Amino acid sequence: MIGDMTQINRELVEWIGRISFSRPVRNVTRDFSDAVLAAEILKLYYPRHVELHNYIPVNSISTKKENWRMLNRKVLVKLDMKLNEDEITQLASGSNNAIEKLLARLQVKVLKNSLTTHKLKFKENIEGEKIINSSPIANDYSQSSLESSNNLNNETCERENKLSKFMHLKQGILFSCIFCVLARVWHIFVYCIPHRFRRHDVLVDVTVDRTENVNDKSVQRTIYELNQELCKKEEIINSLEHKIVHLKNSIKFTDLPVSSLTAQILQNDVKIKQSTKSRSINSVRTKSRLHSFHETKVA
C-alpha cells in the first residue's frame, strides 16, 4: 500500500510539473488548499465550466471553504466529482491527504475523457475511410491522385533542370566577376608602386595595355570613394575636437567657483586666526590690569 501511494505521488508530481500555474508550487497541500490552483487545472481541461476570476487566493480557512464550495457547486458536480462538507473542510485545512486524493481522482477523470475522445475520433476516421473506399468516386479519386503525382514528378524534374541551369549561369557570372576584380586589383597594385620597382616583363606590359582603358575609370572611382571616406572621417574628427574643446571650457568654468571658494575659505581661516589672537591678547591685558589693581589696593 505504501509503495502504491509513493507511485501515485510521483505520478501526481510529474503531472502537476507539466502544468504552468499562476504561482510556483512548492508544497501541494498548502498551495492547493485555497482551490485556486485546482480551478486552474480544471480550466485547462474543461475551459467551459470554469471562470478563474471567481477564485481568489486567500489565507483564512473560512474563505478557502467558500472557494471549494463554489468550485464544487459550479464544476465538480458537473464532472461527477461532488464533494461533501467533511471533504471540503479537509481540503481547506490540508489534512488526511485530501488534496492528493482529489488530484488523483481528477487525473483519472482527465485520462478517461481523453481516451474516450481519441476512440471516437478513431472510429469516425475508420468509418470515413470505409465510405470513401466503397464509393465509385474513390476509384476516380485514386486515378486522379496518380495522375497528379505523375504531374508533380514531371514538374519537379523540370524545376531541378531549371535550377541546375541557373546554378551553372550563376557560377559563370561569379567567375567572371572574380576575374574582373582580380584584374582591377592587379592594375591598382601596378599603378601604385614606383617605376624602379616595376618589372618590365612582356606579359605585364601586355596585361596593363589591355586593361588600362577599362580600369582607368575604376581606379578613378576607387580614388573618389576613398576621398569621400577621408572627408567623412575628417568631419567626424572635427566634431570630436569641438566636443573636446567644449568639455575643456566647461571644466574651466567649473574650476572657477571652486578656486573662488577655496580663496574664501583661506581668507576666513586667516580672519579666524587673527580674531583668536586678538582675543587672547585682550584677555592677557585684562588679567594684567586686574592684577595691578589688586596690588594697588593691598598697598
From TrEMBL:
List all membrane-crossing ranges: 172-191
Instruction: Return one Gene Ontology term, BP aspect.
Output: regulation of cytoskeleton organization
Cellular component terms per the entry's GO annotation? axoneme
> In Gene Ontology terms, what is one molecular function of this protein?
microtubule binding
The record ties this protein, via Pfam families, to: CH_2
Query: Where do the CH-like domain residues begin and end?
Result: 12-107
Q: Which InterPro entries match?
A: CH_2 (IPR010441), CH_dom_sf (IPR036872), Spermatogenesis_Ciliary_MAP (IPR052111)
Keywords, sorted A to Z: Membrane, Transmembrane, Transmembrane helix
Official protein name in the record: CH-like domain-containing protein
Name the lineage. Eukaryota, Metazoa, Ecdysozoa, Arthropoda, Hexapoda
